[in-house]
Amino acid sequence: MFAPLCKSLLLKIVEQGGTIVRRSLILTAAVLGLAASTSAHADDLKVALIYGKTGPLEAYAKQTETGLQMGFEYATKGTMMLDGRKIVIITKDDQGKPDLSKAALAEAYQDDKADIAIGTTSSAAALAILPVAEENKKILIVEPAVADQITGEKWNRYIFRTGRNSSQDAISNAVAIGKQGVTVATLAQDNAFGRDGVAAFREALAKTGATLATEEYAPANTTDFTAIAQRLFDALKDKPGRKIIWMIWAGAGNPPSKLQDMDPKRYGIELSTGGNILPALAAYKGMPGMEGATYYYYDIPKNPVNDWLVAEHQKRFNAPPDFFTAGGFAAAMSVVAAVTKAKSTDTEKLITAMEGLEFDTPKGKMVFRKEDHQALQSMYHFKVKVDPNVAWAVLEPVRELKIEDMDVPIKNKR
């Protein structure tokens, strides 16, 4: 826009003399200075969030978005500026569908010129978009999808993950409930999330000395668990010692409550599952004393980042932060730490900066493992406590399972 004006002024210099020439020179210098100043002004730092804002996991997605925004606010001390650039979050709803997710990420990189992308909610959708990051040679931070394949066999060097993986879920739960003399049966969704979760749990449970009796899988839209529960009960009821059904489930269906209603205690069978969002924890009130392991519960971690998140979230929304709010917050913190260290959004510089990067989160320190870019992090062994003044079950901490307490396998082929 400045070139035609500058050309016009220079023509005047040639054609005219005296005062007009001097004034034209001054004006030309001013315009050229403005042009230089404008071109030097940094572009926005664009972060694309691909998530299932509508669909079966929309509650998770909305928490991720809230956490991401709050994480950037905290990490930039409210300025929303990073490396001299304004952070702009571009959101794209993939509805949890792999084909829509691929299109959304490609659009974010190619049309919106996103520097970094974060997503997505569904493991199936996340697996579909991994090649898109590789094709575009751009960083994708996976949050909150958990399938092991994401940082395992389907991984590529542009993929980092702040979300926990199935192995971290499974190992922490196996450590929490698995002991010599314990027999366990599993129930999971028949998808990448469920099958990866059980595979990792099976491997981790074997190291505890516990026995795995059987595995059951059901479609994610299952609402009637009667036949499945009976098969699980039959597999466990005659076993000696402690007997536990461990469940891994996301979204609707609520198998813990459905199985609890069928009175497994008559066979001496206990139920166990990992943590969940607060609305789902309401159902845990019917299972006082149940043990498991969780990724996050707002009242467990004790550190300045979590203190700020809990207080600020309560102030803004009149509710504590939830499971995936912490995840979105962690993703934002990782972006700020990475760009600050790299002093750039150049992909290769970011990869160098992010491999082995330690960064603060509401859960404390996380570190991107160099080998597979999985964020190693604490998990929390809990026991359910019922408080009549709280709408959900309170997850009372038994112990923090730190990074060194969990032997999380490297499953990629780097």
UniProtKB/TrEMBL annotation:
The Leucine-binding protein domain, residue ranges: 45-385
GO biological process: amino acid transport
Key word Signal present: yes
Pfam families per the UniProt record, alphabetical: Peripla_BP_6
Protein keywords: Amino-acid transport, Signal, Transport
SUPFAM superfamilies tied to this protein: Periplasmic binding protein-like I
Residues annotated as signal peptide: 1-42
Family: Belongs to the leucine-binding protein family.
Protein name listed in UniProt: ABC transporter substrate-binding protein
Lineage start: Bacteria, Pseudomonadati, Pseudomonadota, Alphaproteobacteria, Hyphomicrobiales
